[in-house]
Amino acid sequence: MNTSIVGRIAVLGVSLGLFACKDDGIDTNQYADALPSTVCDAVVECNCEYPGGALYDHCVAQLEVSAKTLAELNGVDGLQFDGECAQKEIDAIGSLGCGVPVFDPEAKCKAPCKVWHGPMDEGGTCTSINGYDNCKQGMTCDEGVCVHPCDEADLPKVGEPCAPEFGCDENAWCDAETAPLFPVCAALPGIGQPCVESLGYACAEDLMCDTSDPGTPVCAALPGLGEECPLGACSDDLFCDVTAAPPVCSVLPALGEACPLGLCAAPNSCEDEVCVAPRASVCGYYSGVPDDGMTTIDPGTDGSLTGVDTGLETGGFDTGLDTGGFDTGLEGGSTGG
To answer: Using one digit for the tens of pLDDT, what is the confidence trace for 153-212?
Structure first.
């Protein structure tokens, strides 16, 4: 199935980072009633823009039909509804407001709380169904296999025997050079120590390999603010400004500042060489009024549509299931499969 408004509900719900669900909460009908009003209130509040414009009543009707259609499709396809996760999604939309989810690399891993989930257990074959995977609650679909996303392999630690092809624990490497017959894990080199050439000149975390002297590459600290960056790398939250001569580490451009290199401080993005605020995530739940050249909104009325038949009275509402092509603009997100 192509990604559509039904898929949007799934993709954007996952992106909100919902966790720790139980098996109670609202039912599918309550979800189909609560989600549209929550989303469409935010669409108005956030001044979401669409090619054909926006209309509150159209937004509510579109999302209500889509949520009910999604329930029918997922039920036939063997997915189960989780009422508490559904309520958490609605609450998260309200809490997020006009913002966007911010990825925290230091955050502790938590299992996903999926509004819809399947029956497949760990190790089972999985696929994507209407934007959701068919793994059990709390699991994700990774390359066609159901897994617990927070499970980590217990790899050998520093000083323990290891296999070079499988590596070692974090910030360690399998040293098959010192003792080729019986390799053991060694700590990645620190400042001033030779880089591990066999691993692409690797160093400990937050360090770089200084190859300015090709004969003796050594690990060094990443350059800080205002320092030269001949290798193109800088410390956290800085970038190497190659427009300077010589290149130096600089602070990422903030909202409204010029971004000639296409880089901005998170969560902003660079458009026409200026850093702009990201579009509110909630805007992606709704596609706006159809931009077919026939729809107009008379500003002198209460906002009712003219020149278009929405099909709401006749049951001919188009959910967009066969048109697809929606781009959520979300990076690194996955709905499985």
So the answer is: 999 999 999 999 999 999 999 999 999 999 999 999 999 999 999 999 999 999 999 988
Residues making up the chain, counted from first to last: 337
Q: Are residues 24 and 99 in the same domain?
A: yes
Q: Answer yes or no: are the C-beta atoms of 118 and 129 closer than 8 Å.
A: yes
Contact 62, 317 (CB under 8 A): yes
Tokens of 262: 């296409």
> For residues 293 and 299, what is the distance between their CA atoms, to the nearest angstrom?
17
Do 237 and 288 lie in one domain? The reply is no
Same domain? For 121 and 49 the reply is: yes
- Based on the domain organization, do 129 and 38 belong to the same domain? yes
Dihedral sign of CA atoms 274, 275, 279, 280 in order: negative
- How do residues 121-132 score in pLDDT, each as one tens digit? 999 999 999 999
- Residue 159 to residue 208: CA distance in whole angstroms: 24
Q: Could you say which DSSP state residue 99 is in?
A: -
Provide the token pair at 300.
């002198």
| Cis geometry, peptide bond prior to residue 299 (ω within 30 degrees of 0) | no
Contact 175, 185 (CB under 8 A): yes
192 CB-contact burial (10 Å; exposed 0-12 / middle 13-18 / buried 19+)? exposed
- Do 39 and 14 lie in one domain? The reply is yes
Give the tokens for residue 29.
């009908």
- The domain tally of the chain equals 2
